[in-house]
Amino acid sequence: MARKNKARTTLNHELLRKMLRIRRFEERCVELYSAEKIRGFMHLYIGEEAVAAGVCQALSPDDTVVSTYREHGHALVRGVPATAIMAEMYGKAAGCSRGRGGSMHIFDVTRGFYGGNAIVGGGLPLAVGLALADRFQGRDRVTVCFFGDGAMAEGEFHECANLAALWRLPVLFACENNQYAMGTALAKSHAMTDLALRAAGYGVTAWPVDGMDALAVAEAAARATESIRAGAGPHFLELRTYRFRAHSMYDPERYRSKAEVEQWKKCDPIDALIARMKATGELPDDDLALLEKEVAAEIDQAVAFSEQAPLEPVEDLATFVCSPAPPPSGTTPVSRAEAAS
Amino acid sequence: MTEGTTTYREAMREAIREAMRRDERVFLMGEDVGAYGGCFAVSLGLLEEFGPERVRDTPLSEAAFVGAGIGAALGGMRPIVEIMTVNFSLLALDQILNNAATLLHMSGGQLNVPLVIRMTTGAGRQLAAQHSHSLEGWYAHIPGLRILAPATVEDARGMLWPALQDPDPVLIFEHGSLYNMSGVARPGPVDITGAALRRSGTDISLIGYGGTMGKALSAADALAGEGIEADVIDLRVLRPLDDATIMESVGRTHRVVIVDEGWRSGSLSAEIGARIVEQAFYQLDAPVARVCTAEVPIPYARHLEEAAIPQVSAIVAATREVLAS
User: Fold this and answer.
1) Domain that holds residue B114
2) Helix, strand, coil content of chain A in percent (nearest 5)
3) Which residue of chain A has the CA closest to B67?
4) Three-class secondary structure of residue B1 per DSSP
5) Is B10 inside a domain boundary?
6) Is the confidence at residue B36, as pLDDT, over 60?
7) Could you tell me which residues come within 8 angstroms of residue A265 by beta carbon, excluding any fewer than 6 positions away?
8) A322 to chain B: which residues are within 8 Å by CB?
9) Residues 6+ positions from B110 with CB-CB distance below 8 Å
10) Contact indicator for A125, A162 with CB cutoff of 8 Å
11) Whether A141 contacts A62, CB under 8 Å
12) d(CA A279, CA A273)
């Protein structure tokens, strides 16, 4: 039977596949980091997979995504090849950013994936501008900007929420509220912790969503993007989620208890979806095994590819600082400068 | 104003108008560029001609609208973003440095940012410390940016179009004292890659740009009365610097005074001085001299402000000193 060869593709299956790809990819990244194949800052998305999977489920291939430094998951589900992401983390020339970006700067312009931004809140204005360009050029696209609860304290969020609402731009603000801005709890950095309510204060349609439930996220994102496409202006989803791993590879996690983390792990979005699918008979054991096998093969291939991929030649260090196009020219001025009056 | 002449302000406005007529991807965005006509009246009348979509007033949100300009450039537009003054550009410095200047390299060549950012710079108008900065030298520190400083009406008219053709971000610094200056501006683009020799001489190289050019030329006129003939170089492009023109001049005059409205420490003048020492040390007959802004926040009172920023008399005095050594 056909389904023996390829895992099934109902909505739940698609969400599960997306989440598993992120989870297994990042678990491999941890091993590779320990093996010193990957270096620098690396921020893991483990625990938050339902957000990327659910939001991106609602997007069409033409839509645009601006992301954060915790973006492996967004990139993977938007179709950036695992080989290109892994090779980038290896610092190889075959990486999507030719080894110049690393974990925090995954880009793939052919898939509308505009990074990969290590400045908290720094991607928000780019998303507003991309949406403005779509408006000018009559393109029916939605630009999704992922950012965290920490970015809600940055001025750029407030400037951009106002600007996008003022100009009714087709932007989906996808706030990944994982409860901590690095190591500072939400309530310790925000006087008002109802983030959706604050976004609504700018005239942006906003509501909170259970970010540990991929289906709930997918439904909310579908509703939001439909409304945006219908011309209702920017929307904001507060996706309440939790990061199971440390902020980065250098984080001793002094700011939260193990018990709290364990409590949240009981809400694991992958476990939850698997349990629901099994309960309804949607996911026979051999289907899950097949899916795991396919995902493992994809990651094995990405690692093998990255291992053998060549490094960018050092001679090309300064390539891409400025464009290779010839410098703009014109007549050379010869006139004497006029004295300032 | 005599026949055939225009002002720096009008030249800039004509350049914007021409660009918007020629290329529908070009639009102007910034604080008060529309209904107000621009803080310095550069965009006066453009709203009426092009409408509010293409002459777009923004909230006072420098990071958002400069970043939106970057995003719009990524999305295929050719934005001209006006920041009212360089002082406010600090609120957008994150977007300019961390995104505009960096995206091409950080993305491995995938993302071009064909954006032009214009802003007023400089002191001399009794606007006190927070409205008198000359920070173009800071921006000239950043790889990935092209930095232009039009000092003439001709450059005010001609630099914008080629800047818009550059696939990478270009920052144009317009010295606030120049807007009322009049001169002749031929239509058509000018070079935006090199410096220009504004006056030829054999005894000293005076190097300046933007708001200091008029002073350098006045100093050269005064020196000519004493029998001292100065080369006057208008840098025009602060990044990348045109080393060749500088070194060619130094090779002829063997003496240099650099005029820079930035503070001396870590300034553009320091960079130029270092390059001359690196590339033309054995051509020098005297130490390189600099006339910079005193290392104080620019004061309000006229006499204090005049004492703080480069003046013709200081350029003349520095030149005499170099020639005496």
Assistant:
1) 5-184
2) 45, 10, 45
3) A125
4) coil
5) yes
6) yes
7) A47, A244
8) 104, 143-144, 146, 168
9) A96, A97, A107, A108, A109, B104
10) no
11) yes
12) 10
- Same-domain status, B18 and B136: yes
Tell me, yes or no, whether B36 and B101 share the same domain. Answer: yes
Using CB atoms and an 8 Å cut-off, which of residues 85-124 of chain A contact chain B? Answer: 95-101, 105, 107-109, 114-119, 122, 124
Helix (H, G, I), strand (E, B) or coil at B120: strand
Q: What is the mean pLDDT of each run of 10 residues along chain A (341 residues)?
A: 56 97 98 96 97 98 98 98 98 97 97 96 98 97 98 97 98 97 94 97 98 98 98 98 93 94 97 97 94 98 98 95 73 48 37
Q: For chain A, what are the domain ranges?
A: 2-312
pLDDT tens across B270-280, in order?
A: 999 999 999 99
Q: Encoding tokens for residue A288?
A: 């899950």
- pLDDT value of residue A334: 46
**Residue/partner pairs of A16-19 with CB below 8 Å, 24 or more apart:** A16/A214, A16/A270, A16/A273, A16/A274, A16/A277, A16/A283, A16/A291, A17/A291, A17/A295, A18/A49, A18/A52, A18/A53, A18/A56, A18/A57, A18/A76, A18/A77, A18/A214, A19/A49, A19/A50, A19/A53, A19/A214, A19/A269, A19/A270, A19/A273
Mean pLDDT of B20-37: 97
What pLDDT is stored for residue A3 in this prediction?
44
Q: B121 in helix, strand or coil? A: strand
Q: Give the bridge partners for B175, in sequence order.
A: B121
| Of B109, B202, B1, the residue nearest A316 (C-alpha) | B109
Provide CB contacts within 8 A for A244, sequence distance 6+. Answer: A46, A47, A261, A264, A265, A268
B233 and B254 assigned to the same domain? yes
pTM above 0.90, yes or no: yes
- pLDDT tens figures, B195-206: 999 999 999 999
In the structure, what pLDDT confidence band is assigned to residue B4 with cuts at 50, 70 and 90? confident
Return the pLDDT at B286. 98
The nearest CA of chain A is from the CA of B143 a distance in Å of 7
Amino acid occupying residue A230: A
Characterize the bridge pairing of strands A184-185 and A205-210. Answer: unpaired
Which of A137, A159, A337 lies at the smallest CB-CB distance from B217? A337
**Residue B210: is its pLDDT beyond 80?**
yes
Number of domains in chain B: 2
* DSSP E strand stretches across chain B: 6-7, 26-30, 55-57, 78-85, 116-121, 146-148, 170-175, 182-183, 196-199, 204-208, 230-234, 237-239, 256-263, 289-293
Question: Which residue type is seen at B245?
Answer: T
DSSP B21-54: HH-TTEEEEETTSSTT--TTSTTTTHHHHHHHHH
| Helix then strand then coil, % of chain B, to nearest 5 | 40, 20, 40
**Residue A340 burial by CB count (10 A; 0-12/13-18/19+): exposed, middle or buried?**
buried
CATH homologous superfamily of A2-312: Thiamin diphosphate (ThDP)-binding fold, Pyr/PP domains (3.40.50.970)
**Which of A146, A94, A25 lies closest to A312 in space, CA to CA?**
A94
The answer for A 301-330 residues in CB contact with B (under 8 A) is 319-323, 325, 327-330
Amino acid at A120: V
What does R_g of chain A's alpha carbons equal in angstroms? 22
